[in-house]
């Protein structure tokens, strides 16, 4: 297959391969990640949170089951739900709005894991953070991005 890149229709942004024009699109999915022509990560995070919600609703009965230990419920969250939400996070540039959205998602799952307080009221955010001793979702994103940047820096020029 001979690949010939050229300008079609006089537009500098159009591409041809074997005299077939390639369509220009606003966004597309590549390896499970949504890429946009504006390089916006907002839609990707929104999509990841939707997929995380699907996982959450599939296991919510387990997370509210009283005979399972809290540690096991946290492991379910960290091994089933969290990887779906954080797929491709190394390229995310988080805004405060996206950090809040991720935090709200995590708080909702953790409220299901830890259940209500004795007074049958919802746990407050500070109570959740006291109960959940592991890094919150935003810290996980930031630390994994730094680790990934280290890998990229070590690759070097070769």
Brief descriptors of the model:
single chain; 158 residues; mainly alpha; two-stranded antiparallel sheet; 4 strands; elongated
Tally of helical runs: 5
Mean pLDDT over the residues: 80
The unreliable regions are none
N-to-C SSE series?
EEEEHHHHH
Spatial separation of the terminal alpha carbons: 29 Å
- Find the structural class using helix and strand composition: mainly alpha
Q: Give the count of structural domains.
A: 1
Main sheet characteristics: 2 strands, antiparallel
Order of strands side by side in the largest beta sheet?
1-2
Share of β-strand residues: 5-15%
Describe the structure in your own words.
- Helix content is 53%, strand content 9%.
- The chain is mainly alpha-helical.
- The protein has one domain.
- A two-stranded antiparallel sheet has the order 1-2.
Write the layout of secondary structure elements.
Layout: E1 15-17, E2 20-22, E3 27-30, E4 33-36, H1 42-64, H2 70-85, H3 96-114, H4 125-131, H5 137-155
Antiparallel strand pairs: 1-2, 3-4
Quick description:
It contains 5 helices and 4 strands. The protein is mainly α.
């Amino acid at each position: 297959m001979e690949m010939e890149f050229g300008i079609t229709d006089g537009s500098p942004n159009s591409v041809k391969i074997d005299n077939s024009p390639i369509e220009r699109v606003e966004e597309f999915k590549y390896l499970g990640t949504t890429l946009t022509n504006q390089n916006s990560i907002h839609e990707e995070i929104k999509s990841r949170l939707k997929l995380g919600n699907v996982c959450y609703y599939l296991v919510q009965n387990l997370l509210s089951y009283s005979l399972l230990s809290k540690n096991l419920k946290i492991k379910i969250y960290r091994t089933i739900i969290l990887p779906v939400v954080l797929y491709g996070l190394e390229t995310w540039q988080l805004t405060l709005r996206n950090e809040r959205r991720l935090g709200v998602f995590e708080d909702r799952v953790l409220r299901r894991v830890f259940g209500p307080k004795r007074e049958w009221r919802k746990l407050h955010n500070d109570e959740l953070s006291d109960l959940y001793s592991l890094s919150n979702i935003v810290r996980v994103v930031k630390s994994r991005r730094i680790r990934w940047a280290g890998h990229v820096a070590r690759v070097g020029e070769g």
